[in-house]
Every structure is written in structure tokens, then in C-alpha cells.
Amino acid sequence: MRQDLAAQAQRLVSLRFPHALGAVLGGSAATGRATATSDLDLVVLVGEDTGTTYRETIRFEGRVAELFVHTPTALAELFAAGRADRRGVLQRVYAEGAVLVDAEGHATRARASAETELAAGPPPLGPGERESLRYGLTEALDDLADNTDPDERAAIATVLLRQAADLLFDHHRAWSGAGKWLPRRLLAASPTLGAALLSGHRTAVEDPAALLHAGGRVLARTGGTLREGFRREWPGSRQG
What we know:
The chain contains ten helices and five strands. By secondary structure, the protein is α+β, with helices and mostly antiparallel strands. The protein folds into two domains: 2-120, Beta Polymerase, domain 2 (2-Layer Sandwich); 128-221, no CATH class. A five-stranded mixed β-sheet has the order 3-4-2-1-5, sandwiched between helices. Strand 3 and strand 4 form a beta hairpin.
């Protein structure tokens, strides 16, 4: 299936973007994890004369395709956005995807830049961001320990998992993720503790003990519980 999807993606690029400077197939289609209904995730680098950077979803030969089209000038901005949200999605597509078009080495240069950024990791959280996460995780652990309502437990457990994951990502200077990529990134950042958080999250409605323990371990690694003394000022709140 992997070769078939690459060939399908190549046909799409040839038809829609015959003058592309670069094209990379990412996601499950490039890693061999695709299913019969998987999308084609395509990054397409076009010339500056188009003046357009956009994302578009289409259907091609019966398969959904997600197109991420950008110019060389926009690439730096998109990479910066990936660093800011700490997910580095575009960097990962360029670094790990299958190159379909590489006119004059454009895709090769983008891949080298992406690999460098991924190896460096995302920027560390600021002290205020880190303390907010520690405080939120402390509260979530307290709420989960005291709650017996199954629906509320499920909601609290999800918040707890996200906050613990974000602290753990920062602790390891590891890239974050959302949706299906959250557990994948979590296991990559910390196989043992990541697995403990995910397992605890699955069982939290019936028995929150495992998630409470795993969340407590994350706090122990990232500065400990934070309640009294926590202070956060909103931007623009100072008088001057």
C-alpha cells in the first residue's frame, strides 16, 4: 500500500502543481501505517510568484488529500509557528516524509533545516508557563483523588493527562502532539512514565490510583506540587 499511496500522491502533484519546487508526502502514508481510509498529507513548495500559502482539503482518485502549500519565504514563518506551538508538524513532515519533487534541491534544503530543528527540540517553557502547568496539574490531581462521579472523573483525567504530558515534554525538551500524536509523542519522550500516564488515563474512571501516581511522578520531576504562593499576572494588567 505504501508504494501505491506514494504513486497516487505523485500523480496528484504532477496534475495540480506541475511547476512545484518541492513536494513531500508525510503522515501515515509515508511511514507505512496507512489504512484503507488514510489521507494523503502533502507539503508542496511553490514559487514566490504564486504569492499564496494555504491549506486545502480535496478528494483525489477517491482518497482525501490534505494539501499544505507554501512558498520558500513562508517556510521560515511556518517553521517558527511549529516551534511556538511545540509540535513542529511541518518540520516533521519535511524531515520524515517521502520526497516526491526536489527541483534544484529545495526539498533537500528544507529537510536539512527541519532535521536540525527537530534535533534541537522545542524552546523551553517560560517560568510562568511552567508554574501554571504545575499548579494546574496539582489541582487536577486533587480533584481526581476526591471525585467519585464517573463522567467528571473522565473529564478531569483528560485534563490531567494533557497537563502532565506538557510538563513532561518540556522536562525532556521533546516535541508535543495532539490527538493520536499525543500518545505517540509521549511514549517517544518518556517510554516508562509516558506509558504509565496513558495506562492510568484508560483506567481512571474505574480506579484513579494509577493516574494519580503517574501524575505525581511527573510533578516530582518538574518542581513538585504548587498551591500556595502561585501567582500569575495577565498581560496588560500592570498599571504604568
